[in-house]
Amino acid sequence: MVTNFWTGKRVLFQGDSITDCGRVRETDDLGPGYPAKVAQIYRCLYPGNGTEFINRGVSGNRSCDLLARYEEDFLSVKPDFISILIGINDTWRRYDSADPTSTQQYENNYRTLLEQLRRDLPQAKLLVIEPFLIPADPQKETWHEDLAPKIQAARRLARQYADYFLPMDGLFQSQIVKGARPEELSEDGVHPTEAGHAVIAEAYLKLLGLL
């Protein structure tokens, strides 16, 4: 059996609908998105390693919602490794519901979450995935004015608290520069297609040296 730092560990995926991806809540279903792809590739490469994968992403969540779910969906899981992708709804609600989350509020919420994780789960490794917007919907182009400062906030927090950082906004832009069509990666600019989720999963595993 090939061993690595995930062997026998519990891996938690946290976030919003991008992570949730329609998972069946009543089971240990990971959904069809990047969490499932990460787990599937990992199990093929490292069979029998006893790694447990758990998806607790919730569609529509903002940074404040992760804080509200802290006891139930972070602490009670007792993870050894946690990845977090949050932020696009902190931007989206400004435009569809006139319910903005300022960059400072986002950063404060996220900082509180990361500080609590460092305090309560000091052994757990943290991966911060920056929020992203894929240029597949021209109507969302104006969102960059709100999202870009939040991406910078996620980067600041990752430098301070995270063990790993995945710059997904930049990585998706890189894919497009290399020739990928935005609509191949996302139909609405927010939710990745299967190909988009595959890009996240590949980058995730490569970052950790598992692929």
Automatic annotation (TrEMBL):
Keywords: Hydrolase. Residues 15-199 form the SGNH hydrolase-type esterase domain. CDD domains: SGNH_hydrolase_like_2 (cd01834). The keyword Ligase does not apply. GO terms for molecular function: phosphatidylcholine lysophospholipase activity. SUPFAM superfamilies: SGNH hydrolase (SSF52266). It comes from the Bacteria. InterPro entries: Ester_Hydrolysis_Enzymes, SGNH_hydro, SGNH_hydro_sf. This is SGNH/GDSL hydrolase family protein.
